[in-house]
Automatic annotation (TrEMBL):
The Glycosyltransferase 2-like domain, residue ranges: 5-129
Entry protein name: Glycosyltransferase
Superkingdom: Bacteria
UniProt cross-references to Pfam families, sorted A to Z: Glycos_transf_2 (PF00535)
Amino acid sequence: MPKVSVCIPTYNRQNLLPFAVDSVVNQSLQDWQLIVCDDGSQDETPERMRDYEAQDTRIRYLRHPQNIGKSNNMRSGFDAAEGDYFIKFDDDDRLTPDFLTQMVAVLDAYPQVDFVSCDHWLINQTNQRDLDASEQNSRYWGRESLETGVIDNLLEVVFIRQSLQVGCTLFRKAALETVGFMRPDLQNCEDNDLLVRLALAGKVGYYLDQRLMEYRVHAEQQSIQRDIRYLEDKLKYLEYFNFQDSPTLEANRQQRLQDTRLLLGLRYIEGHQPQPGRKLLQTYRQQNPSNRKAIFGLVMSYLPSGLQEPVWSLAREMTPRSYMEQMRQGN
């Protein structure tokens, strides 16, 4: 049996997937199994992966003929994993050559630790690292304040600060099995959801203060419908938990629930779905009656569709971009 099972879920990424696969093949630790689980790609991914399978028997390609959803696809890779340790990372990212060597060493040395996470580089479409952006990203997500060692206040780190990324994390497979790995049918926020459930289950996390992974930043096609799907899943993720025993965590959850309802209500209205948009904004205004964005959205929901688009365009221009938007656009 392999020491480590590596899972790369993929979908229509034939040009970027080889970089991810090659980063596993070129690891300094070679005791691994690689599972590429394909959520029904319609490009040339099957042909590329057949070549990899022919060259290396440690590589297994699992293809679903139809799209079964992000978390369900990842669960299929997890079910096929045979190693004691497990990592999942995305098909447009890369592991640095010593990732497995250094991360496995931590789990081998500390049997009480259930998973180890590290920092990562930000890279662009041409695989160039951006040091300034990487450092800014570490600061934004609170990793600069994490020291090497067992993570104190793990629930706060993974829920409030959201410092850890699943793609930078090596798990004991047994720990993931105790929480059922990814919850089925989630398309977004499934990684955060997993880390929070592990923390609530009393699992022990360890942080290694090194950049051992490369996370690719690139502008993906954005759309109102894509935003809506993300925010719907974020709402489900936040509604799933309850932190009544921790006033700080619960206050953070309630605030994020309110923020998500506001954004989702606005996106519904911008996407010409006024009824669910009004319902969310009216619920939001019960606690925030004078919020200008909510009032603006409600007014917009009653305007003729032909008048809405120029007003939305002006509103987008006047609204400061979020950190994530700035990061994806390179500034």
